[in-house]
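Quick one: C-alpha coordinates for this chain, please?
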Amino acid sequence: MGRLVAGSAGGGIRGGGTEAELARRIYQFIKEELPDYVYAGLEVRLTDPVSGRQFTLDLLLIIPHIGVFIMEIKAVESNISPSHLHQLSKYREAVCNHLRDKFLVTPFVYEMLCLPSFKQSDLITDGLADVIDPNFIFFEEDFANSFAFMSKLLRGKFNNEKLYQEKGVYDDISDFMAHNIYFYWQTGILKPERPDRPPLIFLSFNRNNHSFSAEIKSDFESRGIFVWRAPEDVPISEYYKDVETEAILNCDAFVILISTPSLASCEVRYEYEKAKEYNKRIIPILIEDRALDDIFGDDPDTYQILKMTKLDNTIMDGIEQKIKEQ
Protein backbone atom coordinates (compact mmCIF):
# COMPACT_ATOMS: atom_id res chain seq x y z
CA MET A 1 0.00 0.00 0.00
CA GLY A 2 3.01 2.32 -0.19
CA ARG A 3 4.79 3.88 2.72
CA LEU A 4 3.34 5.60 5.75
CA VAL A 5 3.56 9.38 5.65
CA ALA A 6 2.62 11.99 8.23
CA GLY A 7 1.98 15.21 6.36
CA SER A 8 0.30 18.57 6.74
CA ALA A 9 -3.44 18.83 7.27
CA GLY A 10 -5.05 16.78 4.56
CA GLY A 11 -1.87 14.78 3.93
CA GLY A 12 -2.69 12.10 6.43
CA ILE A 13 -1.08 8.69 6.81
CA ARG A 14 -0.63 6.00 4.21
CA GLY A 15 1.21 2.75 3.80
CA GLY A 16 2.78 -0.14 5.69
CA GLY A 17 5.95 -0.75 7.63
CA THR A 18 6.75 -2.45 10.91
CA GLU A 19 4.58 -1.84 13.93
CA ALA A 20 7.30 0.30 15.52
CA GLU A 21 7.54 2.47 12.39
CA LEU A 22 3.77 2.78 12.22
CA ALA A 23 3.59 3.80 15.87
CA ARG A 24 6.18 6.53 15.54
CA ARG A 25 4.70 7.95 12.36
CA ILE A 26 1.26 7.98 13.93
CA TYR A 27 2.73 9.84 16.89
CA GLN A 28 4.23 12.36 14.47
CA PHE A 29 0.83 12.74 12.79
CA ILE A 30 -0.76 13.42 16.18
CA LYS A 31 1.88 15.99 17.15
CA GLU A 32 1.67 17.86 13.85
CA GLU A 33 -2.01 17.76 13.02
CA LEU A 34 -4.15 17.43 16.14
CA PRO A 35 -5.21 20.37 18.34
CA ASP A 36 -2.77 21.59 20.97
CA TYR A 37 -4.92 20.38 23.86
CA VAL A 38 -4.50 16.71 22.86
CA TYR A 39 -1.81 15.12 25.04
CA ALA A 40 -0.23 12.01 23.55
CA GLY A 41 2.19 9.38 24.81
CA LEU A 42 3.93 6.59 22.91
CA GLU A 43 5.26 3.46 24.62
CA VAL A 44 3.91 4.62 27.98
CA ARG A 45 4.94 2.25 30.77
CA LEU A 46 2.38 1.76 33.51
CA THR A 47 2.24 -0.56 36.50
CA ASP A 48 -0.97 -2.09 37.74
CA PRO A 49 -0.74 -1.43 41.50
CA VAL A 50 -3.08 -4.35 42.23
CA SER A 51 -1.21 -7.11 40.40
CA GLY A 52 2.17 -5.37 40.11
CA ARG A 53 2.23 -6.29 36.43
CA GLN A 54 3.75 -3.77 34.03
CA PHE A 55 2.13 -2.74 30.76
CA THR A 56 3.50 -0.80 27.81
CA LEU A 57 0.92 1.18 25.86
CA ASP A 58 1.50 1.83 22.20
CA LEU A 59 -0.35 5.12 22.41
CA LEU A 60 -2.27 7.02 25.08
CA LEU A 61 -4.23 10.19 24.34
CA ILE A 62 -5.71 12.44 27.01
CA ILE A 63 -8.08 15.06 25.65
CA PRO A 64 -9.68 17.45 28.16
CA HIS A 65 -13.47 17.23 28.11
CA ILE A 66 -13.42 14.44 25.51
CA GLY A 67 -11.73 11.60 27.32
CA VAL A 68 -8.83 9.25 27.84
CA PHE A 69 -8.10 6.95 24.90
CA ILE A 70 -5.72 4.01 24.65
CA MET A 71 -4.73 2.48 21.34
CA GLU A 72 -2.82 -0.62 20.36
CA ILE A 73 -1.05 -0.12 17.04
CA LYS A 74 -0.82 -3.10 14.69
CA ALA A 75 0.41 -3.58 11.15
CA VAL A 76 -1.64 -5.65 8.71
CA GLU A 77 -1.74 -9.24 9.89
CA SER A 78 -3.54 -12.35 8.75
CA ASN A 79 -4.38 -13.36 12.31
CA ILE A 80 -6.13 -10.29 13.73
CA SER A 81 -8.07 -11.70 16.65
CA PRO A 82 -10.13 -10.68 19.69
CA SER A 83 -6.98 -11.18 21.78
CA HIS A 84 -5.88 -7.70 20.71
CA LEU A 85 -9.00 -6.16 22.23
CA HIS A 86 -8.47 -8.34 25.31
CA GLN A 87 -5.02 -6.80 25.68
CA LEU A 88 -6.62 -3.35 25.47
CA SER A 89 -8.79 -4.31 28.44
CA LYS A 90 -5.62 -5.03 30.42
CA TYR A 91 -4.24 -1.67 29.34
CA ARG A 92 -7.50 -0.05 30.42
CA GLU A 93 -7.19 -1.50 33.91
CA ALA A 94 -3.62 -0.25 34.25
CA VAL A 95 -4.51 3.23 32.96
CA CYS A 96 -7.43 3.53 35.38
CA ASN A 97 -5.27 2.48 38.31
CA HIS A 98 -2.50 4.85 37.25
CA LEU A 99 -4.81 7.86 37.01
CA ARG A 100 -6.57 6.95 40.24
CA ASP A 101 -3.21 6.75 42.02
CA LYS A 102 -1.91 9.96 40.45
CA PHE A 103 -5.00 12.15 40.49
CA LEU A 104 -7.34 10.39 42.95
CA VAL A 105 -9.93 9.77 40.23
CA THR A 106 -10.98 6.83 38.09
CA PRO A 107 -11.93 7.98 34.56
CA PHE A 108 -13.60 6.05 31.80
CA VAL A 109 -11.00 4.92 29.26
CA TYR A 110 -11.89 4.41 25.62
CA GLU A 111 -10.26 1.47 23.84
CA MET A 112 -9.28 1.69 20.18
CA LEU A 113 -7.35 -0.77 18.01
CA CYS A 114 -5.19 0.94 15.40
CA LEU A 115 -4.65 -0.71 11.99
CA PRO A 116 -3.25 2.18 9.90
CA SER A 117 -2.26 0.03 6.91
CA PHE A 118 -5.61 -1.77 6.91
CA LYS A 119 -8.70 -0.48 5.08
CA GLN A 120 -12.14 -0.95 6.56
CA SER A 121 -13.21 -2.78 3.42
CA ASP A 122 -10.54 -5.39 4.20
CA LEU A 123 -12.67 -6.62 7.09
CA ILE A 124 -15.10 -8.14 4.65
CA THR A 125 -12.40 -9.34 2.24
CA ASP A 126 -10.52 -11.14 5.02
CA GLY A 127 -13.64 -12.47 6.71
CA LEU A 128 -13.05 -10.48 9.89
CA ALA A 129 -16.28 -8.51 9.96
CA ASP A 130 -17.77 -10.86 12.56
CA VAL A 131 -14.68 -10.72 14.76
CA ILE A 132 -13.94 -7.01 15.13
CA ASP A 133 -16.32 -4.05 15.42
CA PRO A 134 -15.03 -1.30 13.04
CA ASN A 135 -16.26 1.39 15.44
CA PHE A 136 -13.34 0.55 17.72
CA ILE A 137 -10.65 0.52 15.00
CA PHE A 138 -8.59 3.19 13.26
CA PHE A 139 -8.16 2.25 9.61
CA GLU A 140 -5.99 3.85 6.95
CA GLU A 141 -8.76 6.26 5.91
CA ASP A 142 -9.17 7.50 9.50
CA PHE A 143 -5.74 9.17 9.22
CA ALA A 144 -6.65 11.23 6.16
CA ASN A 145 -6.53 14.40 8.28
CA SER A 146 -7.14 15.64 11.80
CA PHE A 147 -10.90 15.97 11.26
CA ALA A 148 -11.22 12.32 10.21
CA PHE A 149 -9.11 11.22 13.17
CA MET A 150 -11.03 13.25 15.77
CA SER A 151 -14.34 12.15 14.26
CA LYS A 152 -13.32 8.52 14.67
CA LEU A 153 -12.34 9.19 18.28
CA LEU A 154 -15.82 10.55 18.95
CA ARG A 155 -17.46 7.54 17.30
CA GLY A 156 -15.25 5.27 19.37
CA LYS A 157 -16.20 7.20 22.50
CA PHE A 158 -19.91 6.77 21.75
CA ASN A 159 -19.63 3.05 21.07
CA ASN A 160 -17.40 2.43 24.09
CA GLU A 161 -19.93 4.15 26.32
CA LYS A 162 -22.80 2.23 24.77
CA LEU A 163 -20.97 -1.06 25.28
CA TYR A 164 -20.16 -0.45 28.92
CA GLN A 165 -23.57 0.97 29.72
CA GLU A 166 -25.07 -2.29 28.49
CA LYS A 167 -22.74 -4.15 30.85
CA GLY A 168 -23.56 -1.82 33.72
CA VAL A 169 -20.00 -0.48 33.85
CA TYR A 170 -19.82 3.22 33.20
CA ASP A 171 -17.49 5.74 34.83
CA ASP A 172 -17.03 8.70 32.52
CA ILE A 173 -14.13 11.13 32.57
CA SER A 174 -14.84 13.88 35.08
CA ASP A 175 -14.01 17.56 34.88
CA PHE A 176 -12.19 17.10 38.19
CA MET A 177 -9.81 14.62 36.56
CA ALA A 178 -9.40 16.82 33.51
CA HIS A 179 -8.53 19.83 35.65
CA ASN A 180 -6.05 17.85 37.72
CA ILE A 181 -4.30 16.78 34.53
CA TYR A 182 -4.57 20.34 33.31
CA PHE A 183 -2.96 21.85 36.40
CA TYR A 184 -0.59 19.05 37.43
CA TRP A 185 0.71 17.36 34.30
CA GLN A 186 3.08 14.87 35.91
CA THR A 187 2.14 11.53 34.40
CA GLY A 188 5.54 10.72 32.93
CA ILE A 189 3.98 10.44 29.48
CA LEU A 190 6.31 11.51 26.70
CA LYS A 191 5.46 15.12 25.98
CA PRO A 192 5.00 16.30 22.40
CA GLU A 193 6.37 19.67 21.40
CA ARG A 194 3.24 21.53 22.41
CA PRO A 195 2.19 24.10 25.01
CA ASP A 196 2.26 22.68 28.53
CA ARG A 197 -1.49 22.97 28.61
CA PRO A 198 -4.33 24.67 26.76
CA PRO A 199 -5.40 28.06 28.16
CA LEU A 200 -7.86 28.09 31.06
CA ILE A 201 -10.51 30.66 31.91
CA PHE A 202 -12.56 30.98 35.08
CA LEU A 203 -16.17 31.72 34.14
CA SER A 204 -17.96 33.76 36.82
CA PHE A 205 -21.74 34.09 36.59
CA ASN A 206 -24.96 33.95 38.57
CA ARG A 207 -27.05 30.78 38.45
CA ASN A 208 -29.92 32.74 36.87
CA ASN A 209 -27.67 32.97 33.78
CA HIS A 210 -26.75 29.27 33.83
CA SER A 211 -28.05 28.48 30.32
CA PHE A 212 -26.17 31.31 28.61
CA SER A 213 -23.01 30.53 30.56
CA ALA A 214 -23.26 26.94 29.32
CA GLU A 215 -23.41 28.20 25.71
CA ILE A 216 -20.36 30.39 26.27
CA LYS A 217 -18.44 27.53 27.90
CA SER A 218 -19.22 25.21 25.00
CA ASP A 219 -18.06 27.81 22.48
CA PHE A 220 -14.77 28.38 24.36
CA GLU A 221 -14.05 24.65 24.52
CA SER A 222 -14.71 24.27 20.79
CA ARG A 223 -11.83 26.77 20.38
CA GLY A 224 -9.45 24.72 22.54
CA ILE A 225 -9.88 26.89 25.63
CA PHE A 226 -10.52 25.06 28.88
CA VAL A 227 -13.27 26.53 31.11
CA TRP A 228 -13.77 26.24 34.87
CA ARG A 229 -17.42 26.67 35.73
CA ALA A 230 -19.42 25.82 38.83
CA PRO A 231 -21.11 23.63 39.84
CA GLU A 232 -19.86 20.80 37.60
CA ASP A 233 -16.20 21.52 38.26
CA VAL A 234 -16.57 21.28 42.03
CA PRO A 235 -15.99 17.65 43.07
CA ILE A 236 -18.26 16.05 45.61
CA SER A 237 -17.00 16.36 49.21
CA GLU A 238 -14.66 19.26 48.35
CA TYR A 239 -15.16 22.67 50.01
CA TYR A 240 -16.43 25.00 47.29
CA LYS A 241 -14.52 28.10 48.36
CA ASP A 242 -11.18 26.27 48.37
CA VAL A 243 -11.79 24.77 44.92
CA GLU A 244 -12.93 27.99 43.25
CA THR A 245 -10.14 30.01 44.85
CA GLU A 246 -7.53 27.59 43.53
CA ALA A 247 -9.16 27.68 40.09
CA ILE A 248 -9.00 31.50 40.03
CA LEU A 249 -5.36 31.37 41.12
CA ASN A 250 -4.48 28.99 38.26
CA CYS A 251 -6.58 30.50 35.47
CA ASP A 252 -5.15 32.47 32.56
CA ALA A 253 -8.12 34.84 32.36
CA PHE A 254 -11.19 35.64 34.44
CA VAL A 255 -14.38 36.05 32.40
CA ILE A 256 -17.30 37.58 34.32
CA LEU A 257 -20.86 37.66 32.97
CA ILE A 258 -22.51 40.89 34.08
CA SER A 259 -26.25 40.91 34.69
CA THR A 260 -28.64 42.27 37.30
CA PRO A 261 -28.52 38.97 39.27
CA SER A 262 -24.74 38.73 39.12
CA LEU A 263 -24.30 42.31 40.35
CA ALA A 264 -26.39 41.41 43.39
CA SER A 265 -24.48 38.17 44.03
CA CYS A 266 -22.05 38.01 46.96
CA GLU A 267 -20.45 34.93 45.35
CA VAL A 268 -19.74 36.69 42.04
CA ARG A 269 -18.33 39.66 43.98
CA TYR A 270 -16.05 37.32 45.95
CA GLU A 271 -14.77 35.74 42.73
CA TYR A 272 -14.17 39.15 41.17
CA GLU A 273 -12.26 40.39 44.22
CA LYS A 274 -10.09 37.25 44.19
CA ALA A 275 -9.33 37.75 40.50
CA LYS A 276 -8.18 41.30 41.29
CA GLU A 277 -6.13 40.08 44.25
CA TYR A 278 -4.34 37.55 42.02
CA ASN A 279 -3.82 40.18 39.30
CA LYS A 280 -5.70 38.17 36.69
CA ARG A 281 -6.73 39.45 33.28
CA ILE A 282 -10.40 40.27 33.78
CA ILE A 283 -12.76 40.17 30.78
CA PRO A 284 -16.24 41.52 31.63
CA ILE A 285 -19.16 40.66 29.35
CA LEU A 286 -22.45 42.52 29.73
CA ILE A 287 -25.16 39.96 28.88
CA GLU A 288 -28.28 42.09 29.25
CA ASP A 289 -29.45 45.57 28.27
CA ARG A 290 -28.67 47.79 31.22
CA ALA A 291 -26.60 50.83 32.15
CA LEU A 292 -22.92 50.30 32.86
CA ASP A 293 -22.79 52.50 35.95
CA ASP A 294 -21.52 51.12 39.26
CA ILE A 295 -20.66 47.68 37.89
CA PHE A 296 -17.16 47.59 39.33
CA GLY A 297 -17.51 50.07 42.15
CA ASP A 298 -14.20 51.93 42.31
CA ASP A 299 -13.02 50.41 39.00
CA PRO A 300 -15.48 51.74 36.39
CA ASP A 301 -12.80 52.69 33.85
CA THR A 302 -10.39 49.81 34.45
CA TYR A 303 -11.82 47.33 31.93
CA GLN A 304 -13.18 47.34 28.42
CA ILE A 305 -16.67 45.94 28.90
CA LEU A 306 -17.98 43.82 26.03
CA LYS A 307 -21.72 43.66 25.37
CA MET A 308 -23.03 40.28 24.22
CA THR A 309 -26.66 39.47 24.95
CA LYS A 310 -26.47 36.39 22.72
CA LEU A 311 -23.55 34.36 21.41
CA ASP A 312 -21.59 36.43 18.89
CA ASN A 313 -18.73 34.86 16.89
CA THR A 314 -16.96 38.18 16.32
CA ILE A 315 -16.87 38.98 20.03
CA MET A 316 -15.83 35.42 20.90
CA ASP A 317 -13.06 35.60 18.27
CA GLY A 318 -11.70 38.71 19.95
CA ILE A 319 -11.78 37.13 23.42
CA GLU A 320 -10.07 33.99 22.09
CA GLN A 321 -7.28 36.09 20.58
CA LYS A 322 -6.74 37.95 23.86
CA ILE A 323 -6.57 34.75 25.89
CA LYS A 324 -4.28 32.87 23.52
CA GLU A 325 -1.87 35.81 23.11
CA GLN A 326 -0.95 35.67 26.81
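Residues 75 and 157 are 23 Å apart (CA to CA).
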